[in-house]
Structure formats: C-alpha cells, structure tokens
Write a structure and sequence with these properties.
This protein is α+β, with helices and mostly antiparallel strands. About 30% of the residues lie in helices and about 20% in strands.
Length: about 210
C-alpha cells in the first residue's frame, strides 16, 4: 500500500513539472504585448523630470599591422645597443627594419655610394637622392675543421646558413635632422627583416 502511494505521488509530481514547463515554454514574452504610451504631460508650474544624459562609449581606431608586423614571429631587430652614442644604428618601424644615420640625407646618399663600392658590392645605378641600386654577393660562410667526434655530435644545434645575395636598392627618408635608410629589392619591394638586418648591418659598420 505504501509503495503504491509513493508511485502515485511521484507520477503526480512529474505531471505537474511537465505541465509547468510546457506553460512556461508556450508563454509569450511580455514585451510582445506592450504598447507605446503617449508622452507624459507635466502640469503647468512643475519642472520636467530630468534623466541622466547618455554616456557615449568610444574606442580609438586601432592601427592595422604593416610590413613585417604581419609575420607571426617577433622581429629580430628592435634596436642596436649603444645607439645613443652611435652615428648609425639599426632600428625598427611599421615599415620594417631601417638604418638610422645621424646625418643629412644628402650626406648619407654620398656616404652610401662609397660604402657600397668599398664593401665589394657592384653599383648598378647611382642616384643623387640616395636610391642606389646595387648587387650584393654574400661571401660563403667560414667553417672550422671539426674532428671525428665533433661531427658525430649531430644533436648540437648549428646556425642555418641563409644566402642573402641579390639586387637591392636603398631608400632614404628624412627623420628630423637624421636620415632613415630602408632596403628594397631591385623591383622596389620591401626586403624582409632578416635580409635588411644583414645588409644594413654592413652599411652600419661603414657609416658608424
């Protein structure tokens, strides 16, 4: 008798829960039946109710990434140590790596012409604005003779050799009293960070 009573109670409880859920599910939101009322009329002699002014939330426009910033890896060059005392140092911008020279563009253009020739590069086109076109042939890496056991240690990490040889152009942009030197391919396209670091580093040694 007790078991039958419990079963009946549980069954009634389940029916009530299901019925309640169905009633909530079929009930329309209150705002569907709402309607707009006429504006509030204020009697003469009384002030209109004041409401807080809306707060405008603005977000400053973000700068889109450019140049080597689109690469997933962080730039290899950010700044050069001791740049405060250096006449030329490599720095970083949205357009990529560049060589900052503490000199006027006219003087830098002339000095770059000498640096290209004295570095063993082949000058193809020389410009008074500093847009020199040249060919760079990277010398082969210097390898030390290794013994038998050194060659067997294949697990040691060795630097990968990358050949940056090719035809390039320099682009000079005034920066106050100084000059930025950017590196371009012979076609006018920007050079990646690694290539700029390598070749501009050669100029940095000459102009520094």
């Amino acid at each position: 008798m007790m078991i039958s009573f419990c079963r009946i109670a549980i069954a009634l409880l389940l029916v009530a829960i299901i019925a309640g859920c169905s009633s909530f599910r079929n009930k329309e939101p209150e705002y569907l039946a709402s309607r707009e009322e006429a504006p509030l009329k204020i009697p003469p002699g009384l002030d209109n109710p004041t409401s807080p002014s809306p707060v405008l939330i603005t977000v400053p426009e973000m700068r889109l990434p450019q140049g080597d910033e689109l690469e997933p890896a962080p730039p290899r060059v950010v700044s050069t140590a001791g740049k405060q005392d250096a006449n030329a140092f490599i720095a970083w911008s949205a357009k990529g790596a560049y060589l900052m020279v503490r000199d006027t563009p006219d003087s830098v253009a002339r000095r770059l012409g000498f640096a290209i020739v004295n570095s063993g590069m082949t000058m193809l086109e020389k410009s008074a604005s500093g847009s020199h076109k040249f060919h760079y042939k990277q010398p082969p890496p210097i390898t030390d003779d290794e013994g038998f056991f050194s060659r067997m240690a294949f697990w040691r990490s060795r630097p990968d050799y990358v050949d940056f040889s090719g035809t390039f152009m320099t682009s000079l942009i005034p920066d106050g009293e100084d000059t930025r030197v950017y590196l371009l391919f012979g076609t006018g396209e920007a050079v990646d960070t690694a290539g700029s670091e390598h070749i501009l580093g050669v100029f940095m040694e000459r102009l520094g």
